Every structure is written in C-alpha cells, then in structure tokens.
Amino acid sequence: MAAPVMDTCHVSCCANRTPNVVSWGRGGLIAFGTCNSVALYNPQVLIFTACAVCLGHSGPVCAVDGLSLSSSQLLVASASSDSTVKLWTSSSDTGTIGSVIITSLAVPVLACGGDDSRVHLYVQLNGQFQRLLTLSGHEDWVRCVEWATKDGELWLASCSQDCLIRVWRLFAKAATEPVQQTDAVLKMKENVFQVSGDEFAVTLETVLAGHENWVYGIHWQPPCVKGDSVEQPLKLLSASVDKTMILWGPEEDSGMWVELVRVGEVGGNTLGFYGCQMSPDGFMILAHAFHGALHLWHCDSNQGEWRPSVVISGHFNAVQDLSWDPEGDFIITVGSDQTTRLFTPWTRNGRSEITWHEISRPQIHGYDMQCLTMVGRFQFVSGADEKVLRVFKAPRNFVESFANISCTPLEKLLGSDLPEGASTPALGLSNKAVFQGMNPLNSLATGEFALSNQYKESYFQPLKLTEPPTEDDLLQNTLWPEVQKLYGHGFEMFCLASDSERTVVASACKASKSEHAAILLWSTTSWKQLQSLPCHSLTVTQMAFSPNGRLLLAVSRDRTWSLWRRGNPDTDTEASFSLYANTSKDTAVHTRIIWSCDWSSDSKYFVTSSRDKKVGLGESVTPCSSVLDVGDSATAVSICPYLCSDQSYLLAVGLENGKIVLYKWRPSEDLSSGSDWSRCGETDACQSHTLTVKRLRWRPRPGRAGHGGNEERAWVQLASAGADHVVKIFNIKISAL
C-alpha cells in the first residue's frame, strides 16, 4: 500500500463547551468531543474517528455510557434533554459503537441523575429496564453519576449544583443478619430492594463538601493491577465551576472521607471546570474548562507534589484565518472565539521529538475575530466584527520565551525598546504595554484604568518559559501590546492582506453597497491611509498581493475579481495602485461568490475558487487554464511557493465538506481537454476537517518547521483552518509528486 501523500503533523483543537465531554480510556487514550467530531489524544498524536452514528433523540444528547455484555455485544445508554434515556445494542457483526452510567450486578444497572435533584436506578429484567429505586438528598440538578466496583459491592457517586458530592454503597443483603446483643448502634438508613429473588440494599456512605460552586464532574480512579488481582482504589476526583479539582478518599484509620489533593487556579479569567478524568495509573488528572481548554496535572513520584503539565489546546469556535510568520517558524490564527493564538514547534534539547504547541495568546478580544496578516517577524494586524483594525507587536517576554522553546539564539530575535509584556484593563479591549520596572498594579490603578474594585484586572507577570505555558498563563501573561488602531471602514472587518515587503496593508469590510466595498491601503511605517480602491459592489472576500509586490488581486461576493497594478515602487515606496483589469457580470468566470484567491511564486499566475465548485487560473487579464470542477464548493485555495519535481505548480483546494485536495497544474495550449490539471492527493476521512475549510496557507520556506538538514528541502508544509474549530498542519513530500 502506497504511503499517503499528506501526513498530519499537528492538530490543534479543544473540548466542546459542555459538561463531561472528556473520557480517559484504560489504554491511555484521551477521547473528547470537539465541534461535531471525536478527538483521540495520546498525547502527541491526534486522530478523528466515528465508528457509528445513533439517531433517535429529539434534543441535545447530554450523557452517554456503555457496558460490554459479552466479547461481541455492547450495550449503550444515552440521555437527552428531551427527557428520555435510550438504550442501544451493537454486536461485532454489525460494527461497534464507541464508548447515564451503566454497571453490572448480575444484571445491568443504570443510574440516571436528573433536574429533579434525584438519582434514579434502573435494572434490566426480561429484556426491559425498569425503575428500581430513587435516591434523594441533593437539592439541585444532579450533574454527573459514576459507578465503581470494590469487593463485590457497587459504589455510586453523584454530584450536583448544590455544590455537594454524595457517595452511595450498593451491596447484597445476607440471608440472615445477626441480632445485636449490645447497646444500640448508629446505623445508616438502608434502601432495600429485590432483583430476581435476591435482596440488595443501598446506603449513603458519605457527603463530601469542599467545593464553593456547582460540581459538574466526578470520576473514580480506574482499577489497577496488583499481582494477579485487580483492585479498585477508593479515590474519587471531582471538578467544579469554582476552578478547582479535588481528589477525595477515606482515611486508613478512621475510614472518614477527606480531601487528599486540591488543584486548580486562584483568580484569573477562566470560568471553572466542566468535567474531570484520571489516567489509568492514577498519576495524572485532567479537567476541561468552560472555554474548552484542557488542564493537566501530574504527580511527581519523587516529591509527591501535583504539578501542571503541557497539554494540547485550540480554538473553541470556528477558525477564520491564519498566517505564517515570514520565516515560517510559527503560525498565528484567529477565530470566532474572540482569540488570536500563536503555535510553534517545541524543540527539546537532547530529544529528536518535535511537537507543536500554543505558546502565546496575543489577543483576547470582545468581538469575534475575522482576519489577520503578518507585517513583520513579530508584528501583525487583525480585524474583528468591529470597524477598527488593530496592530500588535510582540513584547520582550514573548521573544525570550519563543527563543527558549524553539532553541533559537536570542540575539537574532530581540529588537530595541521592546515592552516587557501587556495587560488588559477591566472592560477594555486594548492591550496596554508593560515596561520593565513598571508595576502593573500601579499602572492599572490610574488614568483610564481607574475603575471600580468590583472589576478584576488582568495583571501581567513576566514568565521564563522553557516549555509551552499552561492555560492560566496563556490567558493572562502572553498578551501582545496593541501599538496602533486604524479607522476608516464603515462596517465589520472581513479580510486583510500585506505585500511581501511588509510595507502596505490592504483591508476590506462587509458591504452590501459599492460605497462600502472599497479596499483601503495603509502604510506600515506611518499607519496612515494611503488609498481607497473602489471597484466591487459587494463584500471583498479575500485579497492577495503578488510576491513581487506589484499587483493586488481581490475577489468578491459580487462574483467578480479585480486586479490592481502598483506604480513604480523603486522610486516611490508608497506608490499608488490603479485598476489594471477586472471582470464584470458579463465577463465573470464564476457564477457564484468567489471565496478565495492566491498567486504563484513567480507572480505570473493567479488562482480563484468559488462556491460554483470551480477553480481557475489567470495570467494578467486572460484565463490560462481549463476550468477545474472540484465537486464541491471551493472555499479556500493556495499555491505552493515551490515547484514539483516535474516543474508543475502545486495547488491545495479546501472544500465546504472539509476535504483538502492537492492538484498539479502545468501551462497548456489546449485548454479544452482539461489535461493541464492532475489530482495528486487528498485528505482521508480522519485528516479532513468535518466542516468548511476556511483558510489554507503554505509555509513560506521549504522543509518542516523545527527540523533541520539538507533533506528538508524535499518537504513542504500546509496549514489549514476550519469551521470545525480545528487548525491542522500537513507535511507533504513535494519531491515525490
């Protein structure tokens, strides 16, 4: 079997913003829901998979669990906000369904927690689940229930929005109970029931109070193998909206349940945890937060202390745009989750393994992010659902951390007069620079920062990072200062582009009339508006400067493209652009909205892609390729800056269905046959996005980021952003194409 053309190098994603959407399997894999996919984390390898789809609920599914009835049969229960619990069965003959809470006590027992503040127990009799018992005690919604088995007894834990955890013990009653001959003994109330003639009892073992807010998740430590037997440790992990996880367990002497370990964060900007899991060996614990972030702690076996660990991260809403830095060492992404994120390879001394991680969150905004463009090694412009463009420049603290993590000499990166970091005022949208020696507490207490004490500020604390930062540090200590605002557009920003010399930025906003659809040009030295380029009648959806900087291509929702030519840049650094060529409704190549465009590295050809499923290349003002039908709406397109071994151009096309397809194109005189195009690769089901591909960008340098050696020239890298909240990076061996 031939090796795949596209090899997935990195997948950035996070958990869905819903309770208990993460599970840590006995084999060591972490599974979590991300958008409408399931991600498997191990912990550097990510794959997306779906084994079966079960349809039947009329409302959102909020809980699911499974029980293996035999080596070939699986029973799955799902609970929904439609007030129903559905049971599903699957056998090896029909395919396995991937992995409400079920356990087995001779027969399957189902525990369901509801918004009636009760836990309901069901047992399977004669093929049907029947309600057996109702456990009362909680005073608010029951958010999670989980079983454990120890010494032939069942232990059931439940947690609630009343901030409490209740632990119940279910056991078989003896045929005859000894009569107490001594004084009266305090005994817990028993709920007794019968199953198939056998008598069982449920008692409340303990009530755990330690959280200060809703408890969303609980998880028993998985059973461990000791010698020839399997033991179930009586340790229970809980996660709460109070931003903490607690590990509970009984004392050896008294048997009283106590708090063993507490981890989490004090203060900060996060909104607490939605669920928790523990590794099979019990030495790592994981929580997922309101904004989808994973928080991982590991137990230091030497000192017995719990410490934060490096974990995967990503956007929790659609990723709208991305850009490589000019040297190809990192990517910056923006998303509808109102954040801008920076990812780079982590190079560890003495280890050949290289993994990608988020090391900075330069912008945490109050509007959904829409677009960005790099205007220097450590400077970018971003646009959001607002009329303002914002310019950011990296602080000293980030540059030092980037040098440590990427193993790059610091002297090659540092500039002069850089601020130390940035902080954001309460209720503010602008990141303010913090300089060395400045006390952010004092600076935020004066001037425009003088707000009521009821609003918590985000204070910057300098970090000396040698590994990727934790989620808490990403939120608070990796911001970039905002150095400029650009005003001029009348509606929300939609797209940005910059020339290869990083001297001019082009911007466009949402528009329903021609007067608002003009492209604005900005100088990156003075940050003044240079020109307004009117041509289109509706929103300009994407723009691209030619690599030589002399041409600007724009495509629009009005189904046309425009080509603008620059004056003499050799004599005038801010030479004006004039309309060179454009299509009209009568001459348009595309019949639907044009989503994307790009240039070849020699500035000779440009490409456009459209909702009409067509991709075409142009040279100057005339088409130079046959029209390529890609079979689905072509939402993103990008031309590789390096030629294939046969001197053909390599293009990546992103589709609305999430697939990315690679094509080779060679100029041909006969455009009617379509022989100028050849399909050379595509993403498979696991590699593809599950929703629309929003952006494709090739690395501006050959080779794989973070790697070295002459053999790297055989490789190119492609980054993609999707509406499925995911950013992916692919390795492609161009020498083999």
Automatic annotation (TrEMBL):
Pathway: tRNA modification; 5-methoxycarbonylmethyl-2-thiouridine-tRNA biosynthesis
WD repeats: 57-88, 135-170, 312-343, 533-564
GO biological process: tRNA wobble uridine modification
Superkingdom, natural source: Eukaryota
PROSITE patterns: WD_REPEATS_2 (PS50082), WD_REPEATS_REGION (PS50294)
Protein keywords: Cytoplasm, Nucleus, Repeat, tRNA processing, WD repeat
Keyword Repeat listed: yes
Signal peptide, first to last residue: none
Main location (coarse class): cytoplasm
Compartments reported by the entry: Cytoplasm; Nucleus
Gene Ontology cellular component annotations, sorted alphabetically: cytoplasm; elongator holoenzyme complex; nucleus
PANTHER family reported for this sequence: ELONGATOR COMPLEX PROTEIN 2
Family note: Belongs to the WD repeat ELP2 family.
Name of protein: Elongator complex protein 2
Source species: Cyprinus carpio
